[in-house]
Amino acid sequence: MGLLSASSPTIGKRLFCIYLGTGLTSHFKSRATRQAIMDLYGLIGYPLTHSFSKRYFTDKFVREKIKESSYELFEMKSLEELPALLKRKTDLKGLNVTIPYKKDVIAYLDDLDDASAERIGAVNTIKIYADGSTKGFNTDYYGFRQSLVEWLDRRGEVCTNFKALVLGNGGAAKAVLVALQDLHVDYALVSRQKSDDSILYEELSQEVMNEHLLIINTTPLGTFPNVEECPALPYDLITKKHFLYDLVYNPAETLFLKNGTAKGAVTQNGLKMLQLQAEKAWEIWTTEENLWSV
Q1: Total-model pTM
Q2: Domain residue spans in the chain?
Q3: Is the Cα torsion angle 159, 162, 166, 167 positive or negative in sign?
């Protein structure tokens, strides 16, 4: 016969190669498309040995069937690495910020949310827009305020019944102080260094301790693996009338809280605050408008 049929061994091999090539091309195009639409989120800070955020958001993506999303840790010894990260990871939609960069990161951002980060002076959440611009928010405020109100309410208490001692003066403390102001809670800031705005641990007399029944630890002291550390409070002056709140969540009961429990105080760790602030961060990242409400 003058014409070769498709059943010919030669033609069959050629057709198979064409089909296979087309299939592989489609496969790689599909894979590339999937990679291109991946929404990436992450955490910056130093060190990042034990991250609540990665575990929380990874579980959230699975539990809520959120497709094409992932969460990574970006440990940075210096914030000077941030611009390169944003340039390299073009699929980044949002970042969480942790110790020690909540205040210093402001200088690297294009804009701040007036209702949270601008007012507080610290950032723990960054939204990255399609044009690459960045805006800082503070969801620690929301997480702390909401968790404090719910905790005291379960105990039959209201915030205005208390005066507070706030231990530490870092980025987390800034959010706590603004929340206490909004809740009309008088407070004293306690630090290792004397300033016009704070008192020293050595100045915590019996009178001061009896007057301030809500004690909030915003320092990282006691965080795993340094579980034998705690703020230098006069724990012998703690009573069953005291309420101790620790922003640390790992371990679930820090030495600060253990010392309070031993004296009959009511205690709360920072896990609920973290969950609330994480959900607020997700809301900010995935909402087109600059949604902010408490």
Answers
A1: 0.81
A2: 37-138, 141-272
A3: negative
